[in-house]
Amino acid sequence: MNFAFSPPAAASLAISGSTCRFPIRRIFCVGRNYADHAREMGAVEQADGREPPFFFMKPSDAIVSAEGEISVAYPPLTKNLHHEVEMIVALGSGGANAAVDAAKSMIFGYAVGLDLTRRDIQARAKEKGQPWDMGKGFDQSAVAGAINPVEQTGHPDRGRIWLSVNGQIRQDGDLSAMIWTVADVIANLSTFVRLEAGDLIYTGTPAGVGPIVPGDLLEAGVEGVGTLRARIV
Ligand code: MN
User: Which CATH superfamily, name and number, covers 12-232?
Assistant: First the structure.
């Protein structure tokens, strides 16, 4: 096939214990999947149970592969860049309208990630009923460590999820506090779109999100999955 110019290289992540890389198709993110974070963002508690999960996206080339200590550029047009540590689910196969019981069979592996957020731009968008894209989907907004295949991690449904800035713990939660489990999230998302191999899902962040500035060193981890280190420059 002839292209008018060279197509971009596929975005990818390292895979632990392998020389192969994981090619990224799309990046989905779940909003408000830990009650303590939903509260800190001012969400109103539902008296009649859980609200369905909701999703937003980042472009696949927003990915930053965190291999060793990496540098992430402080983005333009914000005075309030926030960290959100999240467990990432990487899909090795896809499907539509998946049953919750079948959802886990799509999972290739898990990674630790950062959903970097221009909170001031997101807040303005919320206020005006506008889309979140420019608050969430900017260049280098999706940091991700190596993917650990399911054969190594199993399916983690409990365990510490944490983030420190310059050695000070800012977020310290547990995977078991997710409002919607990984299987629930996959099943629900697959009713909106047909999921495919290469899709990543950021599964939400616990409480403690806050601002970061150039020079900060972020360290983050998910118990049984991995850690990452990123310097804001
Ligand atoms: Mn998030």
Answer: Fumarylacetoacetase-like, C-terminal domain (3.90.850.10)
Claim: this prediction has a pTM higher than 0.85? yes
Chain-centre distance for alpha carbon 179: 16
Q: What is the 3-state secondary structure (H, E, C) of 152-198?
A: HHCCCCCCEEEEEECCEEEEEEEHHHECCCHHHHHHHHHHHCCECCC
Distance (Å) from CA 149 to ligand 1 centroid: 22
pLDDT in tens, 82-103: 999 999 999 999 999 999 999 9
How far is CA 81 from each of CA 1, 73, 176, 186, 207, rounded to the nearest angstrom?
Answer: 41, 11, 27, 28, 16
Ligand 1: centre distance to CA 9 (Å): 26
For residue 55, how far is its CA from the centre of ligand 1 (angstroms)?
10
Q: What is the pLDDT of residues 15-62, one digit of tens each?
A: 999 999 999 999 999 999 998 998 898 887 666 668 899 999 999 999
Give the per-residue pLDDT at 48: 64
